[in-house]
Amino acid sequence: MNPIKSLKKRLRGHVSRKQLNAFHLAGAVAANIKYRFPARKMLVIGVTGTKGKTTTCYYIASILEEAGYKVAMATTVNFQIGEKKWINDLNKTVLPPDQLFDFFRQANDARCDIMVMEVTSHSIEQQRIWGIPFRYVGFTNLSHDHLDYHGTMDAYRDVKLRLFQKKSPKACASNADDPVGRYFLEHTKIQRRWSYSTESADMPINATDHLWADKISANSSGASFTLRTLNEEGRVVLQLPGRFNIENALCAAALCMNLNLRLGTVIAGLEKVDRVPGRLERIETRKGFSVLIDYAHTPDSLEKLYSTLRPDIRGRMIAVLGATGDRDKTKRPIMGALAARFCDYVILTDEEPYTENPQTIIDEIARGVPRGRTLFKANKPDTTKRIFKDENETGEGVWWWRMLDRKAAIDYAISLGKMDDIILVTGMGAQKFKMVNDEKSLWDERAIIEEILHSRKLLD
Question: Is residue 165 part of a domain?
Fold first, then answer.
């Protein structure tokens, strides 16, 4: 085990969170001194929220590159310095201070103009981002997650709000369709306050600028809308599907507007993003069904994903999902219920257990599966719509299963696939390993799925 990680693990049992945060702060201060406060030499854009941070960062980077800027980016899935991109295989959205500020130093050395980065609630609470003078900050949404760490949704919200209460930001963008987004606009003193919406052209009272989507068309293959500001408008055709990606695009557009870019430049940047690793990645098969890989791992992200895909599926939707260990346990049965509500077949499996027993995690998800089925509506008559006369009969083994081995679970889902079906594998996304008892175990979801498809002669 990494010696720093080992030290932190030993400290957790003997010191308070406040003391641990002081340890992180000291590390951030030391790293800034070591690398001569590298973040001060760049314009930094930070994006926070439960979901959508990575995709929003991708949209921002694409817009900035379209405008001629040299961009550095740090996200959950990868890093970028100019044209150089590499995988984030550290299992950290925000790096530990020494690595983070060394990354800033490298971006400076490469003469990057702007840094775009995700900002998590953990990194704010632990003060790992001390020394970063964010110029623009964006908020995507807030939903059920990380309550194992923050305790309550209000506490979770208030930690993220701190990013909007720093002295350095000159402008912000906040989701007016989310009550927390409006709350942020009310409780920040940032001078320029953009709101964005997919629902309303009305600017919230606490915003200074507003941007919204009109004439929306969104499905499982893409999305289009008219992007409107108070002064101009333009039609946008996104290559990424779903209404939630329109929200991400609006957040990115609002933040980039602060650089006085032409609307045409913003739109061109948005339209160039054709893929975000681990976010609705599609693999087509010879048999006429598709396998989709997505990072969705919270109740809200699963519901948005399932509800986006469901109306356009002519066949059946088959879900493969699990839950992360050593994290918020209250969301597990909710996730099981959502899968049962939207999907024809549900396969519960291991995901990333950390120090927990993976079978226990699966069993906790399973508690929600039968109750979610009461809201299920099949696209066509099928055994999955079977009504059980015995109240003790849950449907396990008929339309849902528990399988500890994730590869076997994916293989079984693929064996069920028929023409026009969608097999949706969620939770791991683009990660290249999973944590088992604090040790990295190699795992590449896409490579494993392609291996299974090749073995079944379903892939060209």
Answer: yes
pLDDT digit string (tens) for 230-243?
999 999 999 998 89
Residue 5 is predicted with a pLDDT of 56
Across the chain, mean pLDDT equals 92
Neighbours of 83 (CB within 10 A): 9
Q: Residue 389 has what pLDDT?
A: 43
Cβ contact 253:266 at 8 Å: yes
State the burial class of residue 16 (Cβ atoms within 10 Å of its Cβ: 0-12, 13-18, 19+). Answer: exposed
Q: Does the pLDDT value for residue 459 go beyond 90?
A: yes
Domain that holds residue 234: 6-272
Q: If you average pLDDT over each of 66-70, 93-97, 228-232, 300-304, which comes out highest?
A: 66-70
Angle at 298 between CA 292 and CA 300, to 5 degrees: 90
- Residue 177 confidence (pLDDT) above 50: yes
Strand partners, 294: 426
Q: Hey, what long-range contacts does 411-416 have (CB within 8 A, 24 or more apart)?
A: 411/452, 412/347, 413/318, 413/320, 413/345, 413/347, 414/285, 414/291, 414/449, 414/452, 414/453, 414/456, 414/458, 415/456, 416/318, 416/345
Is residue 315 within 8 Å of 287, Cβ to Cβ?
Answer: no
Do 11 and 134 fall within a single domain? yes
* pLDDT at res. 375: 80
pLDDT value at position 8?
Answer: 58
Q: What is the CATH number of the domain that holds 222?
A: 3.40.1190.10
The token duo for 66 is 């379209």
- Alpha-carbon Rg for the chain, nearest whole angstrom, is 22
**H or E stretch at 339:** helix 332-342
Q: List strands edge to edge, sheet with 290-294.
A: 281-284, 290-294, 422-426, 317-321, 345-349, 400-403
Distance set, CA 255 to CA 1, 123, 249, 318, 393 (Å): 40, 21, 10, 37, 52
Report how far residue 81's alpha carbon sits from residue 46's, in angstroms, rounded to the nearest whole number: 16
Average pLDDT over residues 93-102: 95
Q: What pLDDT was estimated at residue 392?
A: 58
Q: 173 by DSSP, 3-state: which?
A: strand
